[in-house]
Amino acid sequence: MIFFDVETKNSFDVNSPDSGLASMEVSFVGAFDDKAGKYYSFWEKDLPFLEELLNSGEMVVGYNSWAFDYGVLSKYFEFNIYSLPSLDLMVAMKNIVGFRPKLDDLARANFGKGKLGSGYDALLYWQKGDLDKLEKYCLEDVRLTYEVWKKGKEEGKLNYYTRSGFFNETEVNWDLGIMNKQENSESSDSQASFL
């Protein structure tokens, strides 16, 4: 399985008619191959190698990947990225708990420690040329995505915070986040969830 996360050079402007995922450019993509136990780093120029890696996996796994990451990456690839066997953990969690928990909240609830920052921090790292921090931030998001998936798979349950901020636990079935190209309605209503 290939776990991945995309960072961008820019965000979309809700006040611009030409803005949206199509206007966003990749700054960095982090990935983890669980079979090889190896992390990978891809800058924009390296995306052909990312394409090879994504196509080599039995399943491509991300967090809000169907709505955000695939939308950003799609213009870079010759093939239809939505045709990949895909698991979006956020979609599964939404189907289980009825709302979209943030990856940061799941990490804090299950491991006692959240992400290294936010999507806006990643944008600032790119703008300031702090590429080491950008890479570290993204690869940590990939690691957390993998750890959330692994805990849910091995234990069959996860902790989470309700919308009201209360600590709770739920059974997990990751099959509820398996996506295919007929299910792209998710992409239209959660573009801003990368924050």
Descriptive account of the structure:
Helix 4 (103-111) crosses helix 6 and helix 5 (119-128) runs antiparallel to helix 6 (131-155). The two termini are 25 Å apart. This protein has a domain at 2-89 and 110-147: Nucleotidyltransferase, domain 5. 37% of the residues lie in helices and 20% in strands. It is an alpha/beta fold.
For the largest sheet, list the strands in their spatial order: 3-2-1-4-5-8
CATH superfamily of the domain at 2-89 and 110-147: Ribonuclease H-like superfamily/Ribonuclease H
Instruction: Give the termini distance in whole angstroms.
Output: 25 Å
Structural class: alpha/beta
Unreliable runs, pLDDT <50, ≥5 residues?
184-195
Which secondary structure elements does this structure contain, and how are they paired or packed?
Blueprint: E1 2-8, E2 26-33, E3 38-43, H1 47-56, E4 60-62, H2 65-73, E5 86-88, H3 89-97, H4 103-111, H5 119-128, H6 131-155, E6 157-161, E7 167-171, E8 178-179
Parallel strand pairs: 1-4, 4-5
Antiparallel strand pairs: 1-2, 2-3, 5-8, 6-7
Helix pairs in contact: 4-6, 5-6
Briefly, what is this?
With 195 residues, the protein is α/β, with parallel strands linked by helices. It contains six helices and eight strands.
What are the defining features of this structure?
single chain; 195 residues; alpha/beta; Nucleotidyltransferase, domain 5; globular
